[in-house]
Amino acid sequence: MTTTSMIQPKFLTKPDELGVVAVGFSGGQCKPGVDAAPSALISSGLLTQLHEELGYNLNHDNTVHSYKELMPQNDPDYRGMKNPLAVSAVTQKLSEQVYNQAKEGRCVLTLGGDHSIAIGTISGTAKAIRERLGREMAVIWVDAHADINTPESSESGNIHGMPVAFLTGLAEEKREDIFGWIKDDNKISVKKLVYIGLRDIDRGEKKILRENGIKAFSMHDIDRQVA
Ligand SMILES: NC(=[NH2+])NCCC[C@H](N)C(=O)O
Questions:
Q1: Rounded CA separation 125/134 (Å)
Q2: SS3 category, 67
Q3: pLDDT band for position 40 (50/70/90)?
Q4: What DSSP state is assigned to residue 179?
Q5: Is the ipTM of this complex over 0.90?
Q6: 173 CA distance to ligand 1 centroid (A)?
Q7: Ligand 1 atom nearest residue 200's Cα
Q8: Sequence-distant (≥ 6) Cβ neighbours of residue 10 within 8 angstroms
Q9: Has residue 111 been placed in a domain?
Q10: Within a domain: 62
Q11: How many CB atoms lie within 10 A of CB 107?
């Protein structure tokens, strides 16, 4: 059996602890459903297995947050983004929760949907890593999608396709209630970002990747490597 004690993490002061943050959210895109994922994973035993089989001590508030109280009455499109106030409010709250876990030196697992929540998970962790280790966090983004559209390059207006643009500062917004809360210490550098598994990227995203020299291994690259 693998246990946490067999792994020697270099950057964690509490390697046997796992911070868990669960958020059931679907406002970064138009279809309901993904918000049910965290509860489904938990009720099928994910957290029990992490504790009993991998030996992690879990630090979790036993809640799947839906942040209903943060939902605005009215959420008109802004710079083409859909549900901008809701996604910004949820990801800001999530960022704080993740930061509070990561600053303790424990690994953090975020369960969620949809992918707009990466704005919260990465911004919270990046800030904690800067404070704890005085360095920039690297990100390995394993996904079919690059999710690096700016509001202007996006063809859908869905914010789940934009998290990396806001996190790297390629997309910026002054309004505090629409991602203006993402400060420099929450951001990551395009130099420390690598994509693995891309297979569905928009034309605008291709241009962004090329112009910023972002490293990316597509599914095509992977198929070639293993062939
Ligand atoms: N996390 C995801 N499922 N992203 C899909 C993004 C699809 C498309 N590139 C868009 O920006 O709308």
A1: 13
A2: coil
A3: very high
A4: I
A5: yes
A6: 20
A7: 9
A8: none
A9: yes
A10: yes
A11: 20
pLDDT at 6: 63
- Domain that residue 172 falls in: 15-226
Which residues are CB-contacts of 203 (< 8 A; sequence separation ≥ 6)?
Answer: none
In 55-214, where does DSSP find H-type helix?
Answer: 84-102, 118-133, 163-168, 203-211
Q: Is residue 3 part of a domain?
A: no
pLDDT at 218 over 80: yes
Report DSSP state, residue 216: E
Question: What pLDDT score was predicted for residue 10?
Answer: 85
Q: What's the length of the chain?
A: 227
Task: Give the residue, out of 31, 143, 147, with the most ligand 1 atoms within 8 A of its beta carbon, to mutate for a pocket test.
Answer: 147
CA 149 to ligand 1: nearest atom: 11
Specify if 36 maps to a domain: yes
What pairing do the DSSP bridges indicate for beta strands 57-59 and 17-24? parallel
CATH number of the domain within which 91 lies: 3.40.800.10
Cβ-Cβ contacts under 8 Å for 7 (sequence gap 6 or more) = 15
C-beta separation of 86 from 75 below 8 A: yes
Give the position, in ligand 1's atom list, of the atom nearest the Cα of 114.
Answer: 1
**Token pair for 79:** 């710079």
Taking the C-alpha atoms of residue 91 and residue 77, their distance in angstroms, rounded to an integer, is: 17
- Residue 182 contacts by C-beta under 8 Å, 6 or more apart in sequence? 119, 123, 166, 167
Number of domains into which the chain is organized:
1
Rounded CA-CA distance 110/21 in Å is 5
State how far the Cα of 219 lies from the Cα of 227, in Å rounded to an integer: 12
The mean pLDDT of 194-213, rounded to a whole number, is 98
